[in-house]
Each structure stands twice: as structure tokens, then as C-alpha cells.
Amino acid sequence: MSAPEVNFSDLSNKPLAVVGQVERSATRSVRIRRRGKDVQDLVLVTEERAAQVTEVVTATTRMFLALMEHDDVARTLATEVVPAAFPWVRFLPKEDVQAFVVELVETLAAAESLRNPAPVANLVAAWRHTAEVHADPALAEILQRDGD
Predict the structure, then answer these.
(1) In the predicted model, is pLDDT for residue 132 greater than 70?
(2) DSSP track, 77-137
(3) pLDDT at 147
């Protein structure tokens, strides 16, 4: 389900209408489209919905971390099922998949303690780029060359 979209100018010209859209939206949010190079869109969301999303992410992360800490079977299973969540890991060597899972768990724990998802997103992006290199033998060869 996607959020309704409005132009940035609508936020300043018709703020009550935009707030009404947020409140009527199933996602309790509105995407604010902005124009311009290197300008990101914004999302206006109700405080209650933002708190709900944070609570769900926190609970899910804590449950996953607890499973990983207390159960060898869960750790093994996580490595086996990670391709369902991150299909690109199929291009990584097996030892890199295991390293990714370990790093992911550690980073999830640290990021959750800060309530900041950016470190997890950065880690996933870095590993995805590594998989892209493994997926393209010509690119891997270029990157392994010495010098220029």
C-alpha cells in the first residue's frame, strides 16, 4: 500500500488539506514530492503511526536477536534462509554469506540500541555492492587488478 502524493507547494499553500490527506490515508502518511536535482522527497506521517512502526521494528529486531543469541539451530537457519530476504547473497561465496549474517546481527543490535536504522541500511547496501562485483566476472577482474 503506497501513500498518497502531493507536491511540496501543496504543503505550504494548502496545509490543512494535506493534513487531512495524512489522517485519511490508510498508511497515515503522505509523500511530499519535491523537484530539483539531488532533492529527496519527504514523507509526512502521524506521530502515532511513526511510533507504531518503531515499535514493530524494535520488537522484531529484539526477537530475531534473541533467537540468534540463544539457539544454534536459529543461527544455522538464518544463514540458510537469508537468500529469501536478500536474493543477491546467492552471488556471494558461502563464507561471505556467513560473514554478512554475523555482521547483520551485530549491526542490528547496535542500531536498535540507538534507534537508528541507517547503519543497517548502509551495511546491506555495502554487501549488495559486494554481491554485484561477484555477479560480474569482468567487473571483479577489473577491481582485482593492481595499479591504474
Answers:
(1) yes
(2) HHHHHHHHH-GGGGGS-HHHHHHHHHHHHHHHHHHHHHT--HHHHHHHHHHHHHHHHHH-H
(3) 59
Residues contacting residue 4 through CB under 8 Å, at least 6 positions apart: 21, 25, 30, 31
Residues in a beta bridge with 6:
32
For residues 89 and 134, the answer to whether their CB atoms sit within 8 Å is no
Q: Give the long-range contacts of residues 71-79, CB within 8 A, separation 24 or more.
A: 75/101, 78/105
CA atoms within 13 A on the CB side of 68: 18
Nearest to 61 by CA among 121, 113, 127: 113
| Cell numbers for 83 | 537468500
Using left for φ > 0, alpha for ψ between -120 and 50, and beta otherwise, residue 35 falls in beta
